[in-house]
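Example record for the data management plan.
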Amino acid sequence: MNISTGNTTYVKYQGMISGGNGLEHQHFHKLGDSFYFIPQGVNYYFYKIDTLEKKVSPAIFLDFGINEIKEGELPGRASGKRVDNDKDRMDIADEYSVRHNFLRKSDKYVIPMQKFFNEHYVYIYMVKGQESYGRHYIYNRMRDVGYLIKRGEPFCMYPCFAIDGNVLLAVCQPSELPMCVDRKFMAPEEIATMEGIKDEDNSIIIKYHLKR
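Corresponding structural encoding:
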């Protein structure tokens, strides 16, 4: 929408397989003078928004190789269709459950649950099947080097929701905090602060500092 003129343009894009675009997630990002759309769900693209041409086009592709999910391989359907009667709603719910259960039980596909980037890094949090803890992939765009972090290697990293410079941000409950940090990377005053936190305190923001 052009706020000055009030003109609105609807732009479609290709690539979404599953998942919604509700406001509970951050989908739109400004990087320098460019705007990007990063959809949730099973989607391997970051899309650039051309505000002059009013187009959305793929800008970055996340290559999952043989673990990539092809739409033709999925049973059921994704959510999102609006219907006017209870029978159609039940049918859609059943088809959605079929796809959801298929993805949960599959040990072949890796699903990107969270993804974002900035000028220097790309971050992906992904899960496979019914595993209780996912994996983090961090790609340094400047050095062309990627790192895969699994559970306990080197520590149990918590899923992140944003990046600020070279700092990944996550939110966890106080009881989970000792499991999600590594004391050898913390200053004495930070350790003292952590040890003073009680389980009934508010959620904690964790900052993971990435090497440049």
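Summary line stored alongside the record: The radius of gyration is 20 Å.
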